[in-house]
Write a structure and sequence with these properties.
Blueprint: H1 2-7, H2 9-17, E1 21-25, E2 31-34, H3 36-42, H4 46-50, H5 60-74, E3 80-88, E4 94-104, E5 111-118, H6 120-167, H7 175-205, E6 213-216, H8 217-227, H9 229-235, E7 238-243, E8 247-250, H10 252-268, E9 277-284, E10 290-296, H11 303-306, H12 327-337, E11 341-347, E12 351-357, H13 360-374
Parallel strand pairs: 7-9
Antiparallel strand pairs: 1-2, 1-5, 3-4, 4-5, 6-8, 9-10, 10-12, 11-12
Helix pairs in contact: 6-7, 7-12, 8-10, 10-12
Length: 375
């Protein structure tokens, strides 16, 4: 032991000055020297370490892996292996350490050198994050199940109520009872919308089964406009569309829902003092990015006050008009769930513009689909 210390006095002096955490052991794992920094970390003196073997300090659950690593280390002089294990302190606690073990048995050190860092804080933080994620996932699953049960159990009795209202012979009722039936119908319609929204939101949160196909945006827009045909005619809505490119890779139902929500909002939140104008365009830039722009000249939104709440659930910005504040939440969820993005510019009494950008990877894939068809 004395000869070892004298032979390597200069080397050990340098190591100590570096304040590194290092163990030096014999081939069989008996300690030869432990740096002062390691003594302070684990609470054992160098002399106490020298009376033990490294395996005396390692957590029982980590011993098997450490032995395998040491077997690999000893099989090749001069080699280095990575280590990650729990090492015992003088108080009986275990600290996580991570580092490298180097085989120096054939040089002047005649030892195995284990240089490491204390990673206990990092491991504890990672464990806390894992537990939080697990708890959040469990709560999220419970919430989804709750929403599913509520929406599923309400659908059948609600459909029965709506059916009974529809078969009522309203003309046989007096004005008082007609008013009650109208209020009852209004309430069931609102409840039906809420159940539909709950189901829709739940579906959005699990989009693994969403089918992405080549979609003709112009045809979808024409279909949506047809659904509002009577309102468009009665209000004299001026519709202008320009589709530089017609196709994108997206979910057909999602795109129809998005355009339906945007058109519905444009009509609902129009300014009665002027004719409603709606402009829709689809363009593709040099980077092959496709952008859908939907603008109107309606009431607009105060962006200074409402920008951060615009796509929130149950957020409304014109309280004098009926609505449940779910449409824009669903619209954004549908777009972002498939890798797209949506931005809004708006000014009160001037109108609103929605800018939807579709995922670039999808457009590149679309080009690959087109090429064989052109050959």
């Amino acid at each position: 032991m004395i000869a070892y210390a004298e032979m390597n006095e200069n080397f050990l002096s340098i190591i100590e000055k570096c304040n590194d955490l290092i163990f030096f052991t014999k081939k069989n794992g008996d300690f030869i020297h432990v740096t002062t920094a390691a003594e302070q970390l684990f609470g054992f003196s160098n002399d106490e370490f020298l009376q033990t073997n490294i395996t005396d300090h390692i957590h029982p659950e980590d011993l098997s892996n450490v032995r395998e690593r040491f077997h690999l280390l000893l099989s090749s002089p001069g080699s280095t292996v990575n280590l990650k294990l729990r090492n015992r302190t003088s108080h009986g606690e275990y600290l996580w350490i991570e580092g490298t073990a180097t085989n120096m048995l054939d040089d002047s050190m005649q030892a195995l050198m284990i240089r490491f860092n204390d990673i206990t804080e990092r491991i504890n933080s990672e464990n806390e994050q894992t537990l939080l994620i697990q708890e959040f996932t469990k709560r999220n699953q419970d919430l989804n199940q709750f929403v599913y049960i509520i929406s599923h159990n309400l659908r059948t009795p609600l459909a029965n109520l709506i059916g009974l209202i529809n078969i009522l012979e309203i003309d046989l009722l007096d004005d008082y009872n007609k008013g009650i039936v109208d209020l009852f119908k209004c309430s069931t319609d609102r409840l039906s919308e809420t159940v539909f929204d709950l189901t829709h939101i739940l579906t959005l949160k699990d989009n693994q089964g969403v089918k992405v196909t080549k979609v003709n945006v112009q045809k979808i827009f024409e279909k949506v406009c047809h659904s509002f045909n009577e309102q468009i005619k009665q209000l004299g809505v001026i519709l202008t569309s320009n589709f530089d490119c017609n196709h994108i890779l997206f979910n057909k139902s999602y795109l129809e829902s998005i355009l339906m929500n945007l058109l519905s909002n444009a009509i609902k939140y129009r300014l009665h003092s002027r004719q409603l104008e709606i402009k829709v365009s689809l363009t593709r830039d040099e980077q092959n990015t496709c952008t859908l722009t939907f603008s109107d000249n309606g009431m607009g939104i105060d962006m200074k006050s409402n920008k951060d709440k615009l796509f929130g659930l149950h957020q409304r910005f014109h309280n004098h008009i009926t609505g449940n504040g779910v449409g824009l939440f669903i619209t954004k969820s549908q777009i972002t769930s498939l890798g797209g993005s949506i931005d809004v510019t708006s000014k009160v009494n001037h109108g609103t513009t929605f800018i939807i950008t579709f995922r670039g990877e999808a457009l590149n894939l679309l080009n690959q689909i087109r090429q064989p068809a052109q050959q």
